[in-house]
Design brief:
It is a single chain. The chain has 326 residues and is mainly alpha-helical. The protein has one domain. Helix content is 75%, strand content 0%. It is built from 17 helices and no strands. The chain starts with a helix and ends with a helix. The relative contact order is 0.13. The model is unreliable at 313-326 (pLDDT under 50).
Length: 326
């Protein structure tokens, strides 16, 4: 299998998952602020930018953090390489370059995503974003589901799965690291504490699964354990990284650097001390996990990819748009 093909499949999956993740985070923040009395709404929106790691780039284009400005940055802004429109454009271009490797159903799904995002009425979305968010998530799930159901589960499929799981793990780490300290800062009897913990679960699409297993007693330590250490919840960090490790093992029988890095992180999550991941040190611990995930991504690139798929950059986006016009 050509390395450029593997890389394009890997990044197609990562870009689709990234777009779906940031859209859900944005949606949850809208509804959290509607349900709560928040004195500093600007800080609440600024936390979303910080969660995504875009503070410096955002500050170059906006003086303050408002719902409209942050939404524009996350969804549409050309200066944001991780904006939803840019991720979906790059995902489609990468998928087009390996069209013979994916199924017709997958190609249809990613085209629906592309047409939805490129054809959206941005003013209408800013006034009432819920329907747009729901459509985008459904099409992203359609792409992921058709990959699982219509592709032969060989190396091309494993690179798609690897990109999905690695991106999902990184997002869950960022969400917990960002929202967990905000929630536990409230007093135990403060209703805002429970609402922030619910928002944390919803940001990881974990609310229903958590309630079915643990009921409606929203204890911070229990929530952190579920989102970080669970071996069977599909967005838990341990579950995603174990899936990434399985994909790496299926792609290559040699236990190279990607295998070793992922193996160490999964072992730490499975057998480390409980208080390290659910107590006061949760943010510091998650910082180490996120560093490990980035190291695993770098190792995967060096081990499997000798070329370069379309990067998340303004230049690549402009080239993709020119190709569309041509």
């Amino acid at each position: 299998m050509l390395s450029r093909v593997a890389e394009s499949l890997y990044w197609t999956s990562r870009y689709v998952e990234r777009a779906e993740d940031v859209t859900r985070i944005l949606d949850v923040n809208f509804h959290t602020l509607l349900d709560m009395q928040v004195e500093d709404r600007g800080q609440a929106w600024r936390q979303i930018v910080q969660l995504l790691g875009d503070e410096e780039a955002y500050a170059e284009h906006y003086d303050s953090a408002t719902a409209i400005d942050v939404s524009d940055w996350i969804l549409w802004h050309d200066g944001n390489p991780n904006a939803v429109v840019n991720c979906i454009t790059l995902a489609r271009e990468n998928a087009r370059s390996v069209r013979e490797q994916i199924s017709g159903e997958m190609w249809e799904a990613i085209n629906k995503l592309f047409l939805l995002v490129r054809g959206a009425d941005r003013r209408s979305v800013s006034r009432g974003p819920r329907a747009f968010f729901e459509q985008l998530r459904n099409y992203a799930h359609l792409f992921q589901g058709t990959a699982d159901a219509t592709m032969t589960h060989g190396d091309p499929y494993e690179f798609i799965r690897l990109g999905l799981q690695l991106e999902r793990a990184a997002t869950t780490v960022r969400v917990v690291a960002s929202r967990y300290p905000v929630a536990v800062a409230f007093d135990e009897d403060d209703s805002a504490r429970a609402r922030q913990l619910i928002a944390l679960l919803e940001s990881c699409c974990a609310f229903e699964a958590f309630v079915k297993r643990h009921g409606t007693m929203f204890e911070p330590a229990t929530i952190a354990e579920e989102l970080i250490r669970s071996a069977d919840f599909p967005r838990a960090v341990r579950f995603c990284l174990a899936g990434s490790l399985d994909s790496v093992s299926r792609i290559s029988s040699d236990q190279g650097l990607p295998h070793r890095i992922l193996g160490r992180i999964v072992a730490d999550l499975a057998y480390g001390e409980v208080e390290d991941m659910s107590g006061a040190t949760v943010t510091q611990s998650l910082g180490r996990v996120l560093t490990g995930i980035h190291s695993a991504g770098d190792a995967i690139t060096k081990a499997y990819f000798s070329s370069r798929a379309l990067p998340a950059s303004a230049v690549a986006i402009q080239e993709a748009q020119q190709q569309q016009c041509g």
